[in-house]
Design a protein that fits this description.
The structure is a single chain. With 222 residues, the protein is α+β, with helices and mostly antiparallel strands. The protein has helices at residues 7-10, 18-23, 53-62, 71-80, 82-107, 114-129, 155-168, 200-221; strands spanning 26-31, 43-48, 131-136, 139-144, 174-176, 185-187. The chain has a two-stranded antiparallel sheet. The chain starts with 6 loop residues before the first helix and ends with a helix. The protein binds zinc ion. The site of zinc ion (ZN) has 8 residues, from helix 8.
Amino acid sequence: MDLSERPAATMKLVGGRLFLDFINTAGGRRTNPSHRKAHSDSIIILGDKLNDYFDLLAWGRHTDLIGEADLPALIREARRKEDEAASVLERAVSLREAGYRICMAILDKERPRALDLEILNREIAIARCHERLTQASDGFVWEWTSASVELDRMLWPVARSAAELLTTGDLTRVHACGGEDCGWLFEDSSRNRSRQWCTMQDCGNLAKVRRFRTRLRDAGKG
Ligand SMILES: [Zn+2]
């Protein structure tokens, strides 16, 4: 099974943080116009890159959370334990959507919903069970316990990354791309905090073209 051509394996990783790149496996987010706030259960997703468990594996490989050598065993395990793989995918999507709503609440300067924090806390708790302190050459580091064929292993670092962002990250640097129907999140690490787009090549250019067309049209009217 070749996973390398899947959208989850070729998407741009521009969130600036693992957790945000994970949230960005759903693109084309649009708020249901009949709801005012983006985090009130009203998100329409136009492009979802996680449609089966193998998409999740593809993303894990793409982000280097899973080594090439570990893939075949994970693929075999997922085929052998279909129900477990399906439930890992369900957890992944639920974590992603809770994460998105938490970030949007932060952007709107509101409190995230308790249920969304609960979903995240559950994943953090699972991840922590797999953390181990080990001695490295110049101190101690966190390692993941024997993870090679655990189907949910790519969710552990995602949950840890979410916890790091929320506890020690600069939340004023988290933004949603201003592109129409994009909705990707990113951490703006530019010195003058000027980043507006997920990527300049995609949403940035589209916006430029749109501004140009509007100018042409307005000039035509004059
Ligand atoms: Zn964008």
